[in-house]
Amino acid sequence: MTGIAGRPLQASPLDQLLAPLYWALSLWSELMFRVAAVTGLELLQYPFMHRAVLVGLCIGVMAPLIGTFLVHRQLALIGDALAHTAFAGVAVGLFVNAVLNLDVSPYLSAVVVAVIAALFIELISEHTDAYNDVSMAIVLSTGFALGTVLISINAGGLAVGINQYLFGNLATVSAENAAILLVLFGVIVATVALTRNQLLYVTFDEVAAEVSGIPVSWYNRVMVMLTALVVVGAMQIMGVILVAAMLVVPVAGASQVSRSFSGSLLTSVVLAELAVLLGIGVSYYAEATAGGVIVLVAVAIYVGCVGLGKLRARTGSDAPAPEMGAVDADRSGDASD
């Protein structure tokens, strides 16, 4: 029995766990083949592009979903810090596989290392006098240093095609990695749905949230761990260097044209999906790096949103665009518990 792209479905315990998702991926691939037959789009005639498009659609939802909270908490750079630690996680996975002759997905090791790093960022901030940017800088430097050391050691015949992790690659999104991304997507969306009010309260008034009995520290840890999951998931096509952009740029664009937290969140998802789909299409036909093209498209959309916001303010059709982090949560009716 084989899955999409001829992948054996029961080759390992992980494959057995992911078997239902492989089945879902095969259904998605059949749907894309039908869309290709109707539209004549060449890029939808290949299974690896089906997985890349699905991964891109998931990134377009979960990145701004978490990024909206981060931007309004002025933690936009945490994605960059965790991306570098995810790079270390990939290096750890490749190193362990080479030395111990295992077959562990580097993306799984990246999830573990990135989540641990996310907790370290919070613990450093909680137990020292350092500001968040200091703890992020420490973790970023440590993660990237660990990754480069493991790669440079080259022990046990370790051979690393590291470019795909640094810059992302549409062709390397395997069925296993796509299935792992779907699991991360489900965890992120479900967690935000269950804790939305608490996260919103902590985001806009941390002191009041603590006074009202909300365990602020725990929700801060939940947020950074969710950020780590987004970073690892998006790393497949965005690459380590550019993955943080999807957490920030669509949200920054949405804040120029939205006047509420919910409006900003929904608009950022739409902008992110637009950037991802256009970026994947352009990168395929131009044979360019997907991550770079997606970010350039997202920045172009951001510039357009800035222009639209200025035009609306000048014509008096709307109030001036708020500063980053100043979107009024109350107007969306998102009052917390």
TrEMBL record:
One GO term describing the cellular component: ATP-binding cassette (ABC) transporter complex
Domain of life: Archaea
CDD domains in the cross-refs: TM_ABC_iron-siderophores_like (cd06550)
Region (Disordered): 317-337
Residue intervals passing through the bilayer: 53-75, 81-100, 107-125, 137-166, 178-195, 222-249, 261-282, 288-308
Lipid bilayer topology: Multi-pass membrane protein
Compartments reported by the entry: Membrane
GO BP, one annotated term: transmembrane transport
Composition bias type Basic and acidic residues, residue spans: 328-337
Coiled coil location: none
Keywords of this entry: Membrane, Transmembrane, Transmembrane helix
This protein's record includes keyword Cell inner membrane: no
Pfam families referenced in this protein's UniProt entry, alphabetically: ABC-3 (PF00950)
Family, per entry: Belongs to the ABC-3 integral membrane protein family.
UniProt-recorded name of the protein: Metal ABC transporter permease
